[in-house]
Amino acid sequence: MKTTTFNITGMHCASCVVMNEKSLKKVPGVTEASVNLPLKQATVTYDEAQATERDLHQAIKSAGYGVALSENQPEHADSSHLRQMEVAIAKSRSLVAIILAVPAAVVGMSGWSFGQELYGFELSMWLVAVLSLVIILYLGRQFHLGLLKEVRHLSPGMDTLISLGTLSALGYSVWAMTAGENDFYFETGAIITALILLGKFFEARSTGQASAAIAKLLELGAKTAHLIENGEEREVDIGAVKAGDVLLVKPGEKIPVDGRVVKGASSLDESMLTGESLPVDKKIGDDVFGATININGAIEMKATKVGANTVLAQIVKLVSDAQTKKAPIQKLADKISGIFVPIVLVIAAGTAIAWYLASGDVSTALINAVAVMVIACPCALGLATPTAIMVGTGLGAERGILIKNGEALEKGKKIDIMIFDKTGTLTVGKPTVTNIAPIGSMDETAVLQLAASLEKLSEHPLAQAVVKAAKEKNLSLSEVYEFQNLAGKGVKGIIDSVVITIGSPRLMKELGAATQAAEAMIQDLEAQAKTVVILARDNKIIGLIAIADTIKPDAKEAVAALNKQGIASAMITGDNRRTGEAIAKELGISQVLAEVLPQDKANEVKKLQSQGQKVAFIGDGINDAPALVQADLGIAMGTGTDIAMEAGNIVLVAGSPHKAVEALYLSRLTFKTIKQNLFWAFAYNAAAIPLAALGLLSPIIAAGAMAFSSTSVVLNSLRIKKRGARF
Ligand code: ADP
Ligand code: MG
C-alpha cells in the first residue's frame, strides 16, 4: 500500500472534488482517494501491485482535469505556486469581465438609445449584445466547459447551473431577436458571469491566505550550514548535511538540522516549533532542533536527524496530512452537494413551466428559472470545511499545537472532563531526591548507595533521580543480579546475595514488609507532595527516600482556564493517593485517580465514558498511548524527538499543559466556523430558492448573493486566525 499526493489543475468547485474522487476510486487497487478543493490536491492510497501513479494521473485526465507535476516531486506536494497562478488568472479574467459588463449593464438597463439603427435594431442593443457575448461565451468559458464535463459524467454540479443559467439568458435573447420580440436579457447573463468570476477571484485570493501556513513552515528551515571537517569550517547546502556531521552555529543563525550540542552553550528561540516564547538554555548534551534560532552563544552541534526526519519536516507532514484528510462532516457536505444540483434543476424546470402556464410569458418564466439556478449554486459548499480546517490547523502549528485530523476538531468541541497524567504532564518529570531516611543500622550514604545500585538498571524518572543523587556524592555502585521491573510498583534484584527491593509503600505491603515504624514519616513526606520509595532488604525496611518533582509553571493556570469553561479536571497517577492529592490541591484539581497501574489508565478513561462523560486525556504519547486512544480526545505531550510517532488526535510540540486548553479552544473555534460556513453555503442558498421561484429575486441579485456566499465562507474561515490569536 502506498499513499501519494499530487496537484490537480482545473478544479473550481465542490462537484469537481466529487468527480475526481469518483474517477480515482474506479482505478483498480485504489482503496482511498480524497481530493482537497482549496489545496487543489489529491491524496490517494493504492496497492502498488495493481496500480501505478500513472494510472491515477490518467484517471484525473479522463475526468477532464489535469495533473501538475513538479520536477523533483517533493515529499509534500507544494501547490502554492500553482495556486498563485490561478489567483492571477482569476484576477485578470474578473477584471476584464467587470470592465465590459459595466457599460453593458448601464446601456442595457437604462434603455439608452443612440438614435441609430442597424439591421432593424437600435445600435445600443447591438453594443450590449456583443459585450455580453464576449463575457458569457469567452470570459465565462470555464463554466460551459465544466458543464460538458459534468454532463459526460452525469453528475451535474455548479458549472451546470451557472452555464445553463447564463446560456438560457443568452439563448432566449437571440431567439427574441429573431422572433421579433423586444425583451432582451443579454446583460443579465453578462452580469451574472462577471459577478461570479469576481466571486471566484476573491475566493481564490483568500483561499491562498488560508493555506499559507504550510508554505510558511517550509520557509522556516535554514538553507545552508557551516560544516566542520578536519578542524576547518566551510559553508554547505542544507541538503548536503548528513547525520553525524559536526556543524557550527553562530549567534543569530538558525539551527540547520536536528542534533545535539557538543561544544559551547547558548539560549535558543524555539517558539517557531513549540509556540512558547521564552528562550530555552542549551548546553553540551542537549537536543536542538532545525529552524529554531540561536540567540547568543556560538555552539557546535552533531547532526542527528536530517531531511524528512527532522521535527520541522514531521510537523509540516502532520499539518499537510491533516489538511488533505477529510473531516467526517465534509463527507456529508460532499454527499449533499451531489444530490442537491439535480434537485435544483428539477425545481428550475418546474418554475419555468409554472410561470409559463400562469403568465403565458416566456421571458418571465425563463428569468425566474435562471434566478433559481444561480441562487442555488452550492459553490461555497466545497470550501466550507477545508478552508476552516486549513486555517485552524495552520494556526495550531504556529503555536505548537498539531491537530492530526478534522476528526480531532469535531471531538474537541464537547469535552466534559480533561484527565491529566501527573508525571511529565503536570510536573516537569525530572524529580530530585529531597530526603534520605535510614531505618535501622545503616547510614544515609549506605541507603543511597544500595538504592542507586538497583535503580541504575531502571528507566523510571524516580530511578534516575536516585542515581543522580548517588552520582553527586561520587558513590561507587554495586553489581545487581536477577534484576526485575515491577511495573507501576518498583524494582527488585539481588545484591551481595541478598534480595533488595525498592518501590511504593503499597508494594511493601504486598511483600509483607512491616511499615509501621516508618508510617508517620511516610505520611508526613507524602503530605508535602513528595513521592516516598522504600528500600527493603530481605523484605525488611531499611530506608526511605523522598523524591519531589516540580510542578510546571502553567499547570495551575491551565486547570483554572478549564474550570472557567465548565470543563472538569482530573489527575491520574501511579503514585500514592496522598502525594497525588497534595499536588492536586496545589493545582486546584478536585478529582484524583491515584495508584493506577500503567495498564489500567485506559480502563479509568473507559469508566468515565460509561458514565456518559466525554473525556480528553493528556499524557506523554509513548507510555500513555492506550489511554490516549481510548479517550474521546487524546492529547499527546510531545517528547521532542519523534512527533509523528505519538498517539492521540492532537500533539503538543512542547510539554505545556496550558497548550492543551488552547488546543481545545482552537478545535471548538474551528468546528464552530465549519458549522457557520455550512450554514452560509447551504441553508442560506436553499432558503432563497423559494423566493427565486416565486419571482421575488432577480437573477442579478442572485448572482451577487452567490458570489458573496463563497467569499464570505472563506473570509469567515480566515477569522479563525484573528479570534484564535486573542486567546
Ligand atoms: P506515574 O503515574 O507517576 O508515572 P508509575 O506508574 O510509573 O507512576 O509508578 C507508580 C509508583 O510505583 C511510583 O510512584 C513508585 O512508588 C513506584 N515505582 C515505579 N517504578 C519505580 C522504580 N524504578 N523505583 C522506585 N519506585 C518505583
Ligand atoms: Mg507516567
UniProtKB/TrEMBL annotation:
One Pfam family named in its UniProt record: HMA
Domain HMA, chain residue ranges per copy: 2-68
Membrane topology: Multi-pass membrane protein
Cell location: Cell membrane
One CC-aspect GO term: plasma membrane
Record field: transmembrane: 94-112, 118-139, 160-178, 184-202, 336-358, 364-384, 677-694, 700-718
E.C. designation(s): 7.2.2.8
Top-rank EC class of the record's enzyme: translocase
Record has Ion transport as a keyword: yes
Stretch forming the signal peptide: none
Top-level lineage group: Bacteria
Keywords recorded for this protein, A-Z: ATP-binding, Cell membrane, Ion transport, Membrane, Metal-binding, Nucleotide-binding, Translocase, Transmembrane, Transmembrane helix, Transport
Recorded coiled-coil stretches: none
NCBIfam families: ATPase-IB1_Cu, ATPase-IB_hvy, ATPase_P-type
Family, as annotated: Belongs to the cation transport ATPase (P-type) (TC 3.A.3) family. Type IB subfamily.
UniProt xrefs under PANTHER family: ATP7, ISOFORM B, P-TYPE CU(+) TRANSPORTER
Protein name: P-type Cu(+) transporter
Organism of origin: Candidatus Komeilibacteria bacterium RIFCSPLOWO2_02_FULL_48_11
Classification of source organism: Bacteria, Candidatus Komeiliibacteriota
